[in-house]
Amino acid sequence: xxxxxxxxxxxxxxxxxxxxxxxxxxxxxxxxxxxxxxxxxxxxxxxxxxxxxxxxxxxxxxxxxxxxxxxxxxxxxxxxxxxxxxxxxxxxxxxxxxxxxxxxxxxxxxxxx
Length: 113
Known about the structure:
Helix content is 41%, strand content 20%. It has helices at 28-45, 74-87, 89-102; strands at residues 5-11, 16-19, 48-53, 59-64.
C-alpha cells in the first residue's frame, strides 16, 4: 500500500533502528520502548521489522527478510509478532489514537469504558 506511513523499523542486516522524524514529538519513553521492541525482535528472529500506519491510522507490524537468509526464524517470527500484539496492546492503541488525532485530524469522543 502506498498510503502507509512508517513509524519505526529495525533491521538485523544493517543493525540499525529507524524512527520516522515526523514522530520525534513522541515522549522519550515511547520512543525508547519502540526501539527496544524492534531491536529485540530482530535480534531474536532476524530480518526486518517495520511498524507502520495504514491509511486509516491502524498500526501494523510488517516483517521482511532476505530470500537467502536461512537463519531467519519464520515460526519464531509469527510467535513473536503475536506476543508483541498481546503484550504491547496498550502501547499500540495509544499510538493509533495519537496518529488519528494529530495526523488524521479525527475527533475522539470520550466514552466510559
